[in-house]
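so ive been stuck on this for like two days lol. basically i have the seq below and the ligand is zinc ion, smiles is in there too. i just want the complex predicted, nothing fancy, no docking runs or whatever. if the output looks off dont worry ill sanity check it later, just need somthing to start from for the group meeting slides
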Amino acid sequence: MSQSEQRQERQCISCGINISGMSAAKFKCPDCGHMIYRCATCRKQSNLYECPDCGFRGP
Ligand SMILES: [Zn+2]
Ligand SMILES: [Zn+2]
């Protein structure tokens, strides 16, 4: 696995803040595979997220 990630504007899926440069969690939507980012605060609070692509909701 190479770390060739591009610096892009990333927003927390739950609260919408810009998380570029933060230790945010990223994962793929279990339903459609859309890449989802979540900030540390929302991860701690286990806020719900909603996939912007398919509307899947999860913890
Ligand atoms: Zn957040
Ligand atoms: Zn999805």
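The helical segments are 40-45. The chain is about 10% helix and 20% strand.
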